[in-house]
């Protein structure tokens, strides 16, 4: 499942509390990510899910749910 895989990445990259990671969680406000953390997280997501996330899309991503939606729409994998 995309969310579970993403949750593991967020814990790893942001050192976030797993319980705080929900679809509604704001990446910066709730999970404490700064701009460098976000770059690192996006690179990890691109590697893990084999997708490309353009900078203009990164600027629109605010929550964990936004990332899940983007992966679902743009991933070639059959994971749901």
At the fourth CATH level, what is the homologous superfamily?
A: ACP-like
Number of strands: 0
Largest sheet: number of strands, sense, barrel closure: none
What is the CA-CA span between the terminal residues?
Answer: 5 Å
SS class: mainly alpha
Identify the CATH architecture. Answer: Orthogonal Bundle
Shape: globular
What count of structural domains?
1
Please report the number of helical segments.
4
User: What is the percent of helical residues?
Assistant: 40-55%
Q: List the helices and strands in order.
A: HHHH
Calculate Rg over CA atoms: 11 Å
3D architecture notes:
It is a single chain. The chain has 80 residues and is mostly helical. It has one domain: ACP-like (Non-ribosomal Peptide Synthetase Peptidyl Carrier Protein, Chain A), CATH 1.10.1200. Helix content is 54%, strand content 0%. The chain has four helices and no strands. The radius of gyration is 11 Å and the shape is globular. It starts with a helix and ends in a 6-residue tail after the last helix. The model has no long low-confidence stretch (mean pLDDT 93).
